[in-house]
Amino acid sequence: MEQSARHVSPLPRIYLISSGEEDPAHNGIKISKQLNLLPRSLNCIIQIREKQLNARQLLTLALKAREFDLPEGTLLFINERVDIALAASLDGVHLPESACGPDKLRPFAPKLRFGCSVHSMESLRIAEESGANYILFSPVFETPSKRKYGAPQGLEKLGEICRTTTLPVFALGGITPENAPYCMAEGAYGIAALSIFQDIERFVDTLEHFHQIVSS
After folding, report:
1. What is the Cα–Cα distance from 100 to 192, expressed in whole angstroms?
2. pLDDT tens, position by position, 16-32
3. What is the pLDDT of residue 1?
4. Angle at 117 between CA 103 and CA 84, to 5 degrees
5. Is 138 exposed, middle or buried (0-12, 13-18, 19+ CB in 10 A)?
6. pLDDT tens digits along 134-164
7. Cystine design at 13: which of 32, 41, 117, 190 (Cβ 3.0–4.6 Å)?
């Protein structure tokens, strides 16, 4: 029997989400800059989350990302598109809270890892029962990209989620090197972010700072 994707090597603890602003005419220039700068000494998850691109453009971007010589242990995920993950030989798929569960998709992609966005205890229960490999819990702190989900849920709710599940929990939403230690203290497995990684001049310093926090 093939080994389940739920029982493979541990996930990296830093989760980098792409800008959501890739222009198909520029062939993935934003994520390419980030991938080129990844320190060889640390690994992370990179999620391609470019909802403005069509399927062909997403596949082109995913194939380009897959060509990079990434640090050992670094994983490439894509938002929701199992077909593109398989076509580009990516490592996993991240599913929004409203998407169908991993249990419906894993039969077609048994080697992929599946993560789920979670904003409540109920959605956590659904993610667990459907066989998620990890969850993103958000928004922990105030952040413009998560305002549609309501007010920040805070550290107390993060801690409640972390204590309730055995799945790795990534804290998402307004995460910075200043508040990341509080997330880890509440039991978070790692941290996830988008906006803070868009500052290319500070990209490496930010990654290394986060790495020190999640590794301590």
Report:
1. 22
2. 999 999 998 888 999 99
3. 32
4. 60
5. buried
6. 999 999 998 776 566 668 999 999 999 999 9
7. 190
* Cα–Cα nearest to 171, from 143, 141, 142: 141
The share of the chain scoring above pLDDT 90, in percent, equals 89
Rg (CA), the chain: 16
Structural domains in the chain plus CATH codes: 5-215 (3.20.20.70)
Average pLDDT value over all residues in the chain: 93
50 vs 103: CA distance, rounded Å: 24
DSSP string, the chain: -PPPGGGSSPPPSEEEEP-S---GGGTSHHHHHHHHH--TT---EEEE--TTS-HHHHHHHHHHHHTS-PPTT-EEEEES-HHHHHHTT-SEEEE-TTSPPHHHHGGG-TTSEEEEEE-SHHHHHHHHHTT-SEEEE--SS--GGGGGG-S--HHHHHHHHHHH-SS-EEEESS--TTTHHHHHHTT-SEEEESGGGG-GGGHHHHHHHHHHHHH-
Assess whether the previous peptide bond of 24 is cis (omega < 30° from 0): no
Residue type (1 letter), 91: D
- Mean pLDDT confidence for 34-50: 97
Return the closest-CA partner of residue 190 out of 88, 199, 212.
212
Contact at 8 Å (CB) between 15 and 137?
no
Contact (CB, 8 A) for 163 and 183: no
